[in-house]
Amino acid sequence: MATERSDIEQQIRTAVPSGNASVDEALNRRYAAGFVTDIETESLPPGLSEDIVRALSALKHEPEWMTEWRLAAYRQWLTMTSPEWAKVKLGPIDFQAISYYAAPKKKPKSLDEVDPKLLETYEKLGVPLHERAKLAGVAVDVVFDSVSVATTAQQELAKAGVIFCSMSEAIRSHPELVRKYIGTVVPQGDNFFAALNSAVFSDGSFVFIPKGVRCPMELSTYFRINAGHTGQFERTLIIAEEGSHVSYLEGCTAPMRDENQLHAAVVELVALERAQIKYSTVQNWYPGDENGVGGIYNFVTKRGECRGDDSKICWTQVETGSAITWKYPSCVLRGDRSVGEFYSVALTHHYQQADTGTKMIHLGRNTKSKIVSKGISAGKSSNSYRGLVKVEKNAEGARNYTQCDSLLIGKQCGAHTFPYMEVKNPTAIVEHEATTSKISDDQMFYCRSRGIGEEDAVSMIVDGFCKQVFRELPMEFAVEAKKLLEVSLEGAVG
Amino acid sequence: MLKIENLHVRVAGKEILRGLSLEVNAGEVHAIMGPNGAGKSTLGNVLAGREGYEVTKGSVTYNGKNLLELEPEQRAAEGVFLAFQYPVEIPGVNNTYFLRAALNAQRKHRGESELDSMQFLKQVREKIKVMQISDELLHRAVNEGFSGGEKKRNEIFQMALLEPRLAILDETDSGLDIDALKQVAQGVNALRSPERAFIVVTHYQRLLDYIVPDFVHVLADGRIVESGDKTLALKLEEHGYAWVGERGAVAEARA
After folding, report:
1. Is the whole-model pTM more than 0.90?
2. B-side interface with A, Cβ within 8 Å?
3. Which of A358, A369, A359, A297 is closest to A91 using CA atoms?
4. What is the ipTM of this complex?
5. Contact assignment for B92 to A448 by CB distance below 8 Å
6. What is the number of structural domains in chain B?
């Protein structure tokens, strides 16, 4: 009898793969972008003052108006205090401990001169910089710490009249365009972090699509924080002239560190008459470890203005990284019949905190907005949707539809919804739907009884939950986003 | 293939199965009948490995292995399939995608190569004919917005595709009209084979007109109180479960 029993045990042991190896593998895989590139950087000393702002501007050989613009922002920032209304917990940030500029020492003139170590970094991260970029039909701008290190496919884009370059280059080569549009959507003093960004922004992407042009490829920027004790303050400006179309993607990663690093970006979009801008983000900044140590503070101001009639701006975001995410990509619907859309998946795990959503400001007549937000909370994380739908007096016939769904995994996480509505026109129709659900034991058992393991079952259910948003992402990004959710959710069950 | 010995199971502190024993060999179809609350669904859930079912005594051996030590997904890969009484909806997850993930997970566990989408679709097309399931159901989310009959047919379709060795049908006939019942039965009969065994849990004799069992067992008060061939089901139909109840009481008194 005893021998028979041990035979059975033996068989079971061989049938069940040893747990440890796969757990180790999963842990190692959890934040694959967490490595540091050993590259010589030059940086400004930590601290913030008018001198630092001037030094930064000088380093970038900026014209005087730009330096003055920055200083004006800095002076405004000094009078402001960090906002406290978000449902996030964070200690005070020592802005004097941050270095506001870090850049690889060797400045490449073309992609061929880019330090091989950098190319290797992006290879590891799956961002193709060489020919593959062109084959995939994507032009890439790469921002490493404070500067743009490479922009691909520029010539081909130039043929179509499209300008796609780093912000620094745009300030040098197209100052009239930058000067005309910068700060017109997000003014210098818009909020504490936008003011800080306006003073010290280092790089970012600049996109200009001329009248009637449909951008021949997807544009994308890849942001990477590498150096320690620095912040990244990029500024992106996209201008779509009358009747033009553009689809722009951004991706972000950072090494694993015990300190919290600050990322305070500003993104401004301007859509003129009949122009369409689609802006997609896959944000995977380092989220901190499972005990909540380290991670990026992602405090971002993103706003688009549908300035012309019949224009359209669509934000799609997949937010899985960062210790704290605090952002509200918004649309100002100024033109008549303009359309704003916001599709979001925000996933928090361990001790991550997210307070994210959108603002739809209806100013023009018959403007339409649509909001689909999917929040997923696991571990001990907190995930809030905060959104404002504002219909001004003259926005005759404005329509909004909002759908907010929250999915909880486990018992220690939280999901919150803060919808704000201000409607000043009686013809407006504003709809709001919200649901909160849990992955049920029934769903888990159903999947498992069909042979699907626990973690795969969770990611399958989550994927189904996010489908509405993933559909809005460009194809390659949808695949990446799905994988990212899977990796981010590892260890969320059991 | 399956040997259940003196199985005692608690659910939420209450003892539901109280000394159930059953032996099922390959190729056999066993019907389990019994009144509400007798523990019929508990049996299916315990065999498939649902959480919250605590085995306090007894054993279940499946193809020489201790079934109770396996995780639900391992049991599935070893060929155990439970057709749910109430199939679960998974919003946004495509039915075909779900099935392919399930089949490939099982194949992987067994050390077989995974099927690519072409190979998988070929299999789907073959099985779809047998189950008379509409193409459209395959493209919808798993069970989402399915009618009762569609859900049950989807269960049988999954079974056809996953090709289990031991299939447990938990009240698959409940809520079906006679046409749907015939379709489901036809699907099950098409899958009968010398290598495969079925445990058909049902409330009514009606299903057994179409799926003819080799053995019929009556489950009452958490154990099997009567076993026989298909004529037992007819006797039950005639006398009702009260008759079994009396016999159960006698059995208990004897034990």
Report:
1. no
2. 48-52, 61, 64-66, 69-78, 81-82, 84, 87-88, 90-93, 98-99, 101-103, 105-106, 109, 141, 158, 162
3. A297
4. 0.94
5. no
6. 1
